[in-house]
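so the lab meeting is tmrw and i was supposed to have these ready like two days ago... anyway. pasting both below. for each one the top line is the aa sequence and the line under it is the structure tokens. i havent really looked at them closely yet so no promises
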Amino acid sequence: MKTVSIIIPVYGVEKYIATAVQSVINQTYKNFEMLIIDDDSPDESVKNCRQFSDPRIKIIHQNNRGLAGARNTGIRHAKGDYLAFLDGDDLWLPQKLERHIEHLEKFPDVGISFSPSALIDEDGNFMGAYLMPKLSNITISDLFRESPIGNGSAAVVRREVFDTIKYQDNLYGSTEDYYFDENFRRAEDLECWLRIAIQTDWKIEGIPEALTLYRINTQGLSANLLKQFESLEQMIEKTRSYAPTLTSRWENISRAYQLRYLARSAVRLKVGSDAVTLIHRSLSNHWLILLEQPRRTILTLIAAYMLWLLPKSLYAQIELLVSNLLKNVKKQPVVQN
């Protein structure tokens, strides 16, 4: 039976980390090691991890290097045939690893297996929404538009994939192997997946079950939205350094799709003025997004303006009505409990 190394970066997640660790322990696939990377967390996160006596758990401390740095440390220590990543505030359903290992074993040309995600709020309640991305025939152009993988807790990756794209650098006084780029404080996963797609022949493919529970944190919303877009610009510039022709072709399209995604996030988190600004910036970069994905783009535009212009109470009533209608129209994807 193949071994999975589960890498959990830990920084400032004392409220959530015990539940995240327990969701790993509850996995139906039992042959794993859990590497908890303490990124010099200032709170009680690591103390909460130490309450677990499972011998498969190993806690590794490092000076703060950010999410990418914590993942890199985990990869360097990992002994598994497959590597899985779980952010400290997210959760997995019990069948998560089992389903992905089945997928990767069945399709040896797939290097990254991922699943759709169900959205939960800060208290762990299901928000009635999913990240339901494209699952197959994923191309470089898809990754420029938007990451099908969706978040840092959705992917399970073959070890060989990281061996293919690793590079060496000296950022902290000694030469080390790097996989995720530690110059990124956001979008480090998207940058890595795009680099894999451009520089290797490994396929990226999803399975249909929503097995990841992705937590939406509303703190610092406006600043985070702007910083996410700044990270996209950083990713574009890095990709331009090794794939200039591809980047020139796709960069404005990439901006448009990312800005629309951020507009949808602003709508979901009830910041109407930001939502309107972001969807307008999206259309100014690539207005053809209206034709490429008319339903999603037009609904985002309408929702942004309604949220911005209507009284909050009226918007809430309309939102509830639409939500109930959608529940009656289509069956929910597979999410348990």
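ok protien two:
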Amino acid sequence: MKIGAVDVGGGLRGIYAAGVFDYCMDRGIKFDLGIGVSAGSANLASYAAGQRGRNYVFYTEYAFRSRYMSLSNFIIKRSFIDLDYIYGTLSRADGENPLDYPALRDNPMELYIVAEEAVSGRTKYFDKSDIRQDDYDVMKASSAIPFVCRPYVIGGISYYDGALADPVPVQKAFELGCERVVVILTKPEAVIRSPEKDEKAAARIQKKYPKSAQNLRLRAQRYNESVALARRYAEQGRALIISPDDTCGVDTLKKDRQSLHRLYQKGYGDAAAIEKFINS
């Protein structure tokens, strides 16, 4: 049976999924396929590399550094989040917390990373063949939040955050051959996403990237529809939704160590449901 995992990201709320994957590593739970959106791509990369606890440090230590995210970054580099610092300076082989690329490469788990082409608005699913030692550009592309970050350019194509294109890629996981899928949300399952924040960001990028602005305006609708679809799969026994009962006050860019730790612990505890799901 082919088992998939979908991590929808969510900025700093992604620490919830980091807890889920650390539990999976502690219990020897393996997935045949993973699809990561935005911060979810980083969580899945560390999981595939077998680096338990690696992402926890990014959320609870590195995120508090001004080089990671700050107003000065936004003023100087036009990106509040310095994606090159996260996925380059910190993550390369000679960095402070290197990603174990050989382990990631040799893991038989399929890995897909979702991004959106900023100009065309089309969905792009990168795969493991697009990742090389010290070249983690696809994760940068998937994590480039509109207006908060500049689009990230790969091969002459500008990309924005994958959540604009496929915010909860549960259907994609089944299309790729999965028979069961674990869907990790970083908001409570019952929360209906509202378009207000997306509308403000869309207005900021409308002139230069109208297709991306349109996708931003549709993001809430697509997210809500995808969660509803995941629920239908769950009713059929084909999907398991893992989500926090609350976010402990953590938001996309809101930094508070105690809140982050509590949300991580929720993810670690909630992941216990996965064993029964994949073994039943």
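from a quick look at the 2nd one: The chain is about 45% helix and 15% strand. The first strand starts at residue 3 and ends at 7. will dig more after coffe
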